[in-house]
Specification:
Layout lengths: L11 H31 L5 H5 L4 H36 L4 H16 L2 H11 L5 H27 L2 H9 L4 H16 L1 H14 L11 H11 L8 H31 L29 H4 L16
Helix pairs in contact: 3-4, 3-6, 3-10, 4-6, 5-6, 6-8, 6-9, 7-8, 9-11, 10-11
């Protein structure tokens, strides 16, 4: 049993105690879930009629339209946040103090404001008639500030010797940033960048506050306007819409994992030029000595090099 650097390896009594806690905790969670299911069933929320509403063509079309609207807002917000993040991190690392202070102030200001307030302020103040653009702009501003800090951490993690070597070669700061620092920062922080995009996708649900017809707003309208057996199908609607959100986030996380593995894949099997040795070291041919019995029948000449026939200068 090996100890970890983060905690001491538990002994036999601790292992037994942890297993007991795990079993008790699992049983408690299972009991809570069972009680919730029984109560929902008693109130009729799990009746087949509550779930049959999703077989209606109108409701399916509404959910499909809401899914497309959510993906549109997410696409605009993802692109906007990444572009804004790059601009802000360049400003944050600028040699000019006014530019650096302005970028730092912008980042700290909008990171401190709640995202809901930012979206609502942009909608009320500038884009009242364009709720999709208001939602995308609010998400871009907030998540762009977060992405800027992520990229700044990635750039600072690159060894300084690389930028110093680039400057020594005569490269400008823009060339060093674009060609040396930024690619390595993006590769190092790619999991965090994709993780923040997952957060951006989930935050599109805040569009309901500005009446944007995304998934959460559509779910609220479906559940509040459809009555089954004298009750509103809030539970079934939440389960269906929540499953769609989970599926989208899992797909985006799977894409992030695939991109990360592909970026870290090492290239092996470098091709060797025809006629070149496999190990890259040129072969050395031995110099043959004089034939036996040559030059008056004398034997091999002892040249002082172990009889190899190689003449020493």
């Amino acid at each position: 049993m090996s100890a970890s650097v983060l905690f001491d390896a538990p002994g036999p009594k601790a292992v037994v105690r942890n297993r007991i806690y795990a079993v008790v905790g699992t049983l408690a969670i299972a009991a809570l879930i069972a009680i919730s299911i029984v109560r929902l069933a008693d109130k009729g929320h799990l009746a087949p009629e509550m779930w049959d509403i999703f077989n209606y063509t109108g409701i399916r079309q509404n959910i499909a339209d809401a899914l497309i609207a959510t993906l549109k807002a997410f696409g605009l917000a993802a692109i906007g946040s990444l572009v804004l993040g790059v601009l802000l991190v360049v400003g944050r690392l600028s040699d000019h103090k006014p530019v650096r202070w302005a970028a730092a102030t912008f980042i700290e200001l909008f990171r401190s404001l709640p995202l809901l307030i930012t979206i609502y302020a942009i909608w009320v103040g500038f884009l009242t008639d364009y709720s999709m653009w208001a939602l995308a702009a609010g998400l871009s501003v907030y998540n762009g500030c977060v992405q800027a800090e992520v990229l700044r951490a990635g750039i600072n993690s690159v060894p300084k010797g690389q930028s110093e070597a680039a400057y020594a070669l005569g490269m400008s700061k823009t060339q060093v940033m674009v060609s040396v620092l930024m690619p390595q920062a993006v590769r190092a922080m790619l999991p965090t960048i994709i993780g923040q995009l997952v957060v951006t996708l989930k935050d599109t649900s805040l569009g309901f506050i500005i009446l944007y017809p995304e998934l959460l707003q559509t779910a609220r309208l479906i559940a509040s306007n459809t009555q089954v057996n004298g009750q509103y199908p809030y539970v079934s609607t939440i389960v269906v819409i929540g499953t769609i959100y989970i599926a989208m986030c899992l797909l985006l996380s799977a894409l992030a994992t695939w991109i990360e593995k592909r970026g870290r894949r090492a290239r092996t099997g470098i091709k060797v030029a025809p006629g070149a040795p496999a190990d890259g070291i040129p072969a050395v041919k031995a110099v043959p000595g004089p034939p036996a019995g040559g030059a008056g029948g004398a034997g091999p000449k002892d040249d002082g090099a172990g009889g190899t026939g190689v003449t020493k200068d």
